Predict the 3D structure of the following.
Amino acid sequence: MAKRIKQKKTNCKRIVIYGPESTGKTTLANDLANHYKTKWVPEYAREYLQKKWDLHKEKCNLNDLTNIALGQINLENKMLSKSNKFIFCDTNVLVTKVWSETHFSGYFSPELKNILKSVRYDYYFLTNIDVPWVKDDLRDRPDNREEMFNYFKKQLDINEIQYTVVSGDRKERLKKAILILKNFFD
């Protein structure tokens, strides 16, 4: 993905479902989109990296991260035309930053920094680690869940990003998220 992709302008509120692997981000994004009769943006990295694994048995490397970030923004842009009041993003560039820093000895490329500076989101839901970890080809940190959660949270705090931690079962998470969105955006 050689060319630079920018976020399209929209009146939709961009809501990020954010957190460590296997914490229910996709489920919450889908449930919120269904509730609000809008769209959600799947995690581009999942498709990209699964294909890489299936074809070559290769894991993510530093060269993949810019493609993943730009692919996520491109997918978000495509879903905007089908969305209404909200668009729910199952990950974003800040997740890519966390992943880069936690998997590549603290490294975060200048290009990714520039991409991160160029995007804007209206609210974040940080998914808690209180759901079971589920193994798949791409997940790799079953024993570091608390450490990863704290790192994700720290990024929100140091960047002064507004967020709510969502915990509990599927229904509790959805109910809490809907209440928060109502309070912030109605």
Observations:
- The first strand starts at residue 13 and ends at 18.
- The chain is about 50% helix and 10% strand.
